Amino acid sequence: MQVLAVASEIYPLVKTGGLADVAGALPLALERHGVGTTTLIPGYKQVMARVHASGTARSVFAWGDFYGGSAEIIQAEVAGLKLFVLNAPHLFERDGGIYGNGAVDWGDNWRRFAALSRAGADIAGGLLSDYRPDLVHVHDWQAALTLAYMRYGAAVATPSVITIHNLAFQGQYDAGIFAELGLPDDAMSIHGVEYYGGVGYLKAGLQSAWAITTVSPSYAQEIRTPEFGMGLDGLLNDRSASLVGIVNGIDIDQWNPQTDPHLPAHYSADVLDDRQSNRHHVEERFGLDRDDSLLLCLVSRLTWQKGIDVLVDCLDDIVGMGAKVALLGNGDARFEGEIHAAAGRHPGRIGVVTGYDEALSHQLTAGADAILVPSRFEPCGLTQLHGLRYGCVPIVTRTGGLADTIIDANEAALTAKVATGFQFEPLARQPFLNAIRRALNVHREPDNWRQMQVQAMKSDVSWDHSAECYIDVYRSLLRGTHL
Ligand code: ADP
């Protein structure tokens, strides 16, 4: 089976969040099960550099004018990933972020991702002489229009899957852009791309996909409610028979405490004492007191979705309860300022690094006792999976993928020795502090804490099972059954 994936980011070439991790890891996991994937991605500057450096790049198609400039499709293999790269300098080769410059999105994102999608649909429809996929799998709004182009074009009979990584990002534009998309007039309807009077990219993908997946079973349920559905709950309810939740895995080779090149000290569940050097490294790097108190960490975008406002409200109390906190994140300037201010109030007890630092995220997870994930909503979440893998006990809100991947340390679970973390709900100051209080209580009894760490490390966070679930979806579509 040959799958064409379309995504706007892919680890290790370009990443702003969990989408890149999934786009990079899933093809490798599928490959191990005999399913080949080639992923179409935009030719951003950093991508083109990697593609040229790989020595594998060859141009397989060229347009004289593609959405306002010349463009080509380059085939390449980078980091074990088979790629088609849409090299369109007028759309993708620019300084700044991949979606915008600081807080402001690029004004032509609608065109950039329409172009990516169009290229995907054309490849699915037979643009290239020696490649035609059996199935197309697109990720999030940036690639969603692929399915509209397929539906109204040559690839209407090719099975398709769309995965929602975060319903909060939908790609909504003014109706005025429709004329430039190159879709037939009848696509501008409620059954096509029309969305609240404008054009909705994600909406169009959800409407056109043969199957819809999202990244955890709980989130698959939640997004059918007005509270989490962000305006799409009606559509998702209509399509509920085609909607499935498949939890993400993580790359257990990159995230392996026995071999991780980022770590000062390697360890395993059998030799947890060896974690201590990693803890000291974190204490030093974040300017924290060296003592045995509960060391909490955060690795996160600093946004409202991630519950950072509530965390900020709790920081003084967390220190008052005797814990200390190491925070790594970037995002809203307001939150960055507030956590720096908290660190200023509590020297030695709260340490902050603002920015994006892959190596430090590994070191924190390997050195802290517990990782905080107080998300308001969380489609799947990856940092709690990293925490499980590294014996850094997750403290999470009971929502979405966090609810599905962590076993709460209630009395029964503690007695049965199956607990892997602490869950709380709703997201508010007192429930959050209660969960931290529960963690402090278990942490005071080193044998019990160690038992939880070991249990966390036993959790299966690999891609294996999830890859099988995706293959089940693919197979049922190839048999001709819409889910
Ligand atoms: P989201 O995609 O909503 O941001 P996820 O938990 O699904 O959240 O994925 C976030 C990914 O980005 C994880 O791999 C996490 O380790 C990483 N990450 C987030 N913030 C940082 C940061 N400041 N430095 C390094 N890695 C980060």
Summarize the model shown.
This protein has 483 residues and is α/β, with parallel strands linked by helices.
Defining traits:
six-stranded parallel β-sheet; 483 residues; single chain; 20 strands; nine-stranded mixed β-sheet; alpha/beta; binds adenosine-5'-diphosphate; globular; 19 helices
Low-confidence stretches: none
Distance between the termini: 18 Å
Approximately what portion of the residues adopt beta-strand conformation?
A: 15-25%
- Which structural class matches the secondary elements? alpha/beta
Number of helices: 19
Number of strands: 20
Give the helices and strands, then pairings.
Layout: E1 2-6, H1 18-32, E2 36-42, H2 45-53, E3 58-63, E4 71-78, E5 81-87, H3 89-92, E6 100-101, E7 104-105, H4 109-124, E8 135-139, H5 140-151, E9 160-164, E10 172-173, E11 194-195, E12 198-200, H6 201-208, E13 211-214, H7 217-222, H8 226-229, H9 233-238, E14 243-245, H10 276-285, E15 295-302, H11 308-320, E16 324-331, H12 333-345, E17 350-354, H13 358-367, E18 370-373, H14 383-390, E19 393-397, H15 400-405, H16 411-415, E20 422-424, H17 429-443, H18 446-458, H19 464-478
Parallel strand pairs: 1-2, 1-8, 2-5, 8-9, 9-13, 13-14, 15-16, 15-18, 16-17, 18-19, 19-20
Antiparallel strand pairs: 3-4, 4-5, 6-7, 10-12, 11-12
Bound molecules: adenosine-5'-diphosphate.
